[in-house]
Specification:
Layout lengths: L1 H26 L4 H59 L10 E2 L2 E11 L5 E6 L12 E4 L2 E9 L4 E8 L4 E5 L5 E6 L6 E8 L9 E4 L11 E11 L3 E8 L8 E7 L2 H10 L1
Antiparallel strand pairs: 1-2, 2-3, 2-13, 3-6, 4-5, 4-13, 5-6, 7-8, 7-10, 8-9, 9-12, 10-11, 11-12
Helix pairs in contact: 1-2
Length: about 270
């Protein structure tokens, strides 16, 4: 829109100049007085034209400077996102390694560009993509939970299926040494999940911490997820345990993408079985 306005003004200026020159030529004759008047008129027109084009040049120069400042501001915001994402993990039970690599996992701090929280198929758009080493199937975490799994990747962004999605569950452990079962969002509350298939004989207390089990090629072990609450017996054999999540999905701004370096090898082994 701005470019169209500039072109419009340039055309009007050119027409104005042509009309001014034509009018001055019509009025000009051989008299000295009119010659002087004509010269002054031409100087005024030239001054106006010069000022217009100088303003136009200045406009494009300022636009270029503003674009450069906007890019610099964007890069600084990304850097801040990385610092805050790292700080979020370093201040939790689960610590981000200094070199972003630990065991079979590599960690990529990132900011959230867009997030869905109000449907049964929630998702996140994350500001890191293939250019940053992100690939499909990577996990998304914070210091307070497993947030989702990367389903699609573009050059600079990634699409992640949120944990608050009916098609999502993770392998979780009741306490660091306890039983393991699938944990999924309860489908209603932004802060509750259900840990299932815990054997009836397993002892636990309300308030026990639930962690990622590590029995997955997506998430590393021992990421704190939430605390155990009420339980009900299913088919007389297992518990379904209500879990209050640590992470507030409504307040998410920064996450860390976690890539399993050995995932491809694990999947090849599984495909061969």
């Amino acid at each position: 829109m701005r470019r169209s306005n500039i072109i419009y003004h340039l055309i009007n200026a050119a027409i104005f100049i042509m009309l001014e020159i034509a009018a001055l030529n019509m009025l000009r004759n051989n008299s000295t007085v009119q010659d002087v008047w004509f010269s002054k008129g031409m100087q005024a027109v030239s001054s106006t034209v010069w000022g217009f084009f100088q303003n136009t040049k200045q406009y494009f120069s300022l636009k270029k400077s503003n674009d450069a400042l906007a890019q610099e501001n964007y890069e600084l915001r990304l850097r801040l996102a990385e610092i805050e994402a790292r700080a979020g993990l370093e201040n939790s039970v689960f610590e981000l390694p200094a070199d972003n690599v630990a065991g079979n996992f590599r960690y990529i701090p990132a900011n959230i560009v867009k997030i869905s929280n109000n449907t049964h198929h929630n998702y996140l758009i994350i500001g890191k993509g293939s250019e940053d080493g992100v690939s499909e199937g990577a996990g998304v975490i914070t210091g307070k939970g497993a947030i989702g799994v990367i389903d699609a990747v573009s050059r600079n962004h990634s699409y992640a299926r949120s944990f608050k999605n009916h098609e999502m569950n993770i392998s979780a452990r009741l306490g660091k040494e306890g039983a393991v079962g699938p944990m999924a969002w309860d489908g209603f509350s932004s802060s509750r999940a259900i840990l299932s298939e815990i054997p009836h004989h397993v002892e636990f207390e309300k308030g026990d911490t639930v962690y990622t089990s590590g029995y997955s090629s997506i998430f590393p072990p021992d990421i704190p997820l939430g605390t155990a609450g009420e339980a009900k017996i299913v088919n007389g054999a297992t518990y379904d345990i209500e879990v209050t999540l640590f992470e507030d999905f409504g307040a998410l701004r920064y996450v860390t993408i976690v890539e399993n370096i050995g995932k491809e090898e694990i999947e090849k082994l599984e495909d061969g079985i």
